[in-house]
C-alpha cells in the first residue's frame, strides 16, 4: 500500500497538484461556513470544495476577501489571482449546452483565470460528448453504497481524477449502522465516517501518480473524498484517517455494499439527457 498522509496529492494533467483529501461545505450557512473552513485549514486541509449554488457566500463578504487576497498576492509578487479548479456543476443544457459551457471553461483556462477545469455529476455519455481536452476532474456521488463503477472505470481509463462527494452518506442511519461498517470500525477503533473516508482514499490505488501524461495511461487512481462538517471535533476526526489501513479483505467487504444507482442519496443526475 502506498503511504498516505494529509499532505498526499495527485498530479493533474496540467502538472498542478490536488490534495488527496478535500473539505466540503454543502448547506453550511454563510458565517458557519467561514468558521468551518478556518477550522479545516487549522486541521491541515488544503482543498476546499464549494459551489455558487450553495448560496453560502455573501457577495459583499466575498468581495472583501478577494480584495485582501489580491493585496497579499501583489505584495508576494505571485501575479494575478486565479481559481485552482473550476467545475461545471451538472450536465444540464443538453449536448449543445454542455459543449458551450466546456468551451467557455477552456477559454478561461487558456487566459489564465483558471488553472484546471473539470465537471461534476457527468456520466460516461456526457464525458464522451465533450469537445477538446478531457476534464481534469469529475466529481460524483461516491461512497460504499453508490460506487458508480461504470463512471469510475471510464475516468480511470482516461486519466480523469475522481472527486467523491457525500463520502459519508450524509450520516444516514440506514448506511452508518450497516453491520459491515460497524464491525470494521470497531476493529480499528475508528468511527464509521473514518472508515468510509479511508475506503475512499484507498479505493483502486495501485501506485503513485508521479505523472499524469495521458499518453502513459491507463492507470488507476483512488478517489478524492470531500467530507463535510461544521463541527470542529468532526472536522478534525475526518482528517485523522492516516494512522490506520484497511486490509484487502476489508476493502472487498465494503466493495460488496454497492447498491448501484439505488444507493444514491442525492440527486445524482449522471444519466440526465
TrEMBL record:
<dbReference type="InterPro" id="IPR036812">
    <property type="entry name" value="NAD(P)_OxRdtase_dom_sf"/>
</dbReference>
<dbReference type="InterPro" id="IPR018170">
    <property type="entry name" value="Aldo/ket_reductase_CS"/>
</dbReference>
<dbReference type="InterPro" id="IPR023210">
    <property type="entry name" value="NADP_OxRdtase_dom"/>
</dbReference>
<dbReference type="InterPro" id="IPR020471">
    <property type="entry name" value="AKR"/>
</dbReference>
<feature type="binding site">
    <location>
        <position position="89"/>
    </location>
    <ligand>
        <name>substrate</name>
    </ligand>
</feature>
<dbReference type="GO" id="GO:0016491">
    <property type="term" value="F:oxidoreductase activity"/>
</dbReference>
<protein>
    <recommendedName>
        <fullName>NADP-dependent oxidoreductase domain-containing protein</fullName>
    </recommendedName>
</protein>
<feature type="site" description="Lowers pKa of active site Tyr">
    <location>
        <position position="72"/>
    </location>
</feature>
<feature type="active site" description="Proton donor">
    <location>
        <position position="54"/>
    </location>
</feature>
<feature type="domain" description="NADP-dependent oxidoreductase">
    <location>
        <begin position="67"/>
        <end position="258"/>
    </location>
</feature>
<dbReference type="Pfam" id="PF00248">
    <property type="entry name" value="Aldo_ket_red"/>
</dbReference>
Amino acid at each position: 500500500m502506498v503511504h498516505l498522509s494529509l499532505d498526499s496529492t495527485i498530479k493533474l494533467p496540467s502538472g498542478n497538484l490536488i490534495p488527496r483529501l478535500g473539505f466540503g461545505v454543502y448547506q453550511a450557512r454563510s458565517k458557519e461556513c467561514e468558521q468551518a473552513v478556518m477550522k479545516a485549514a487549522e486541521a491541515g486541509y488544503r482543498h476546499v470544495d464549494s459551489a455558487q449554488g450553495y448560496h453560502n457566500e455573501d457577495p459583499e463578504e466575498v468581495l472583501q476577501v478577494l480584495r485582501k487576497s489580491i493585496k497579499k498576492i501583489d505584495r508576494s509578487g505571485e501575479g494575478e489571482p486565479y481559481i485552482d479548479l473550476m467545475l461545471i456543476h451538472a450536465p444540464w443544457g443538453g449536448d449543445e449546452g454542455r459543449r458551450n459551457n466546456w468551451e467557455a471553461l477552456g477559454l478561461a483556462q487558456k487566459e489564465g483565470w483558471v488553472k484546471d477545469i473539470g465537471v461534476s455529476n457527468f456520466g460516461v455519455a456526457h464525458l464522451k460528448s465533450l469537445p477538446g481536452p478531457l476534464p481534469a476532474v469529475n466529481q460524483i456521488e461516491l461512497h460504499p453504497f453508490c460506487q458508480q463503477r461504470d463512471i469510475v472505470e471510464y475516468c480511470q481509463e482516461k486519466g480523469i481524477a475522481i472527486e467523491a462527494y457525500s463520502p459519508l452518506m450524509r450520516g444516514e442511519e440506514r448506511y452508518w449502522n450497516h453491520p459491515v461498517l460497524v464491525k470494521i470500525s470497531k476493529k480499528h477503533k475508528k468511527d464509521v465516517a473514518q472508515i468510509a473516508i479511508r475506503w475512499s482514499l484507498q479505493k483502486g490505488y495501485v501506485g503513485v501518480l508521479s505523472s499524469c501524461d495521458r499518453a502513459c495511461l491507463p492507470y488507476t487512481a483512488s478517489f478524492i473524498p470531500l467530507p463535510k462538517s461544521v463541527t470542529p471535533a468532526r472536522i478534525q476526526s475526518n482528517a485523522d484517517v492516516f494512522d490506520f489501513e484497511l486490509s484487502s479483505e476489508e476493502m472487498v467487504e465494503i466493495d460488496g455494499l454497492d447498491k448501484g444507482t439505488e444507493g444514491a442519496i442525492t440527486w445524482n443526475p449522471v444519466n440526465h439527457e
